[in-house]
Amino acid sequence: MVREGYSFGVPPFLIGVGLLVLGRGWAFGAGVACVLLGLFVFSFFRNPNRIIPTAPGVIVAPADGRVVVVKDEEYGGRPGKRVSIFLAVWNVHVNRAPAAGQITKLEHKPGKFLAAWDKRASLENEQNVFTQETEHGEIVYKQIAGWVARRVVSWKKQGDTVARGERVGLVRFGSRVDVWMPENAEILVKVGDHVKGGSSTLARTREVVGVKTENLEALRQARQKKEPGGSPT
Questions:
Q1: How far apart are CA 123 and CA 109, in angstroms?
Q2: Same structural domain for residues 63 and 32?
């Protein structure tokens, strides 16, 4: 479980236990409700380990959830493809890097809190935008806040080197993650598919351009190191 889960889950759980001890009338019912709320919060902040694909040219899902958009789309004047994933409240909300490489830019953009499935959410909602140099070329992925999820958290910073499938952050409660890929990416999912962050393959590229980082050994070490906020309990 992500460490933040204790801050959100322990208070209602302990209050619920206290009310159950009283065991009379409304206190018992309220105690059951608080305990269930605490257990739900613990479940929401779960942080399972995943088996990361090792095949070359693979781009993995940055989040758990349902694919809601697959389309050709320009980004910064460059042709490419976008896949959007909607995270329901019962999905794992830890986000992962879709490919190995260096985060060349990380930008927080304040904005609206439209429903995560709204097509305008990609542009108008509050979000963290990761720009990453990878073997596939430049990839851009976004943690997008939704109507319920009003907090996007990054555990990385600009200049960090990450491994494919490495944990990079968290979005709280229902939300959305977009990933933009170069036009040479072959998309392997379709709208309606359910994916798991880090282990499901979104796309692949037949030609790789090489990761533009000076220390490739850091990529291999990154997969082994303890990730911020990411230790399962």
A1: 10
A2: no
